[in-house]
User: Fold this.
Amino acid sequence: MEAIRLFREQLKSGKICLGASISIADPVVADALADSVDFFWIDQEHCPMSPEALTGHLRATRARGVPALVRIRGIGSPFIKPVLDAGADGVIVPQIRSADEVRQVVSDCRYPPLGARGYGPRIPSNYGRNGGRDYIDSANKGVFVSVQIETAEALDALDEIAAVPGVDSLVIGPMDLSGALGVLGDVEHPKVVAAIERVIATAREAGLFVGTGMGPNPDYACVMARRGVQWMHVGNDFDYLVCHMNQITYRVRKSLGSDAVSHKIRSLHD
Assistant:
């Protein structure tokens, strides 16, 4: 739990924490990116990542001392418990719609008497060597619980959601939030910006951290940081592959005066 403790301390100190989203199965990806990020956002919601692939990433992040938060597929103990038992430092729960759902998430993340998490922490307890009461207390205190605000229902219940004990962070989902507000894809639409600013203000007033995810867009990351977002993943593993390869191809072909620079790649740079 040392990595997530330091992550919390960085956020409390005012540091903007930047991370990478992981979607490719090979744990070499997490190992390679570890020195460049403050945390990992491992995505199960949109990626067919197997339990074995997830475990590989969590071992890599643990070895590198980088906190790993897993965006799970849905609400409920079957989604949360195996992820935490595999060694995740916390969860990001998508598509939240009510405070009752958030209460369920909090309960699923913590052992009794604070919650209803079943006991079976293989990796976090060092395969039983460090289990028992001390582990339970440490796990209950250390787990990082975050929920995504990206639906109209969550906006309607925002004050009640932010007041649920045991939540660490609200996480803005700009793209889905724009869809919920009828302007899918326009994350800078005034309605979306107003909703984002409301989420940030509500979270900060409740003493919660604010996170978000986005594509590989440094300019938008700076905009969100200036609005008050404290932690964010800026793109994901395949974004970095595509963007950097496009940059290399463009620069080499342009330097050589080649006519083979594709319109698609040229449009990314001109």
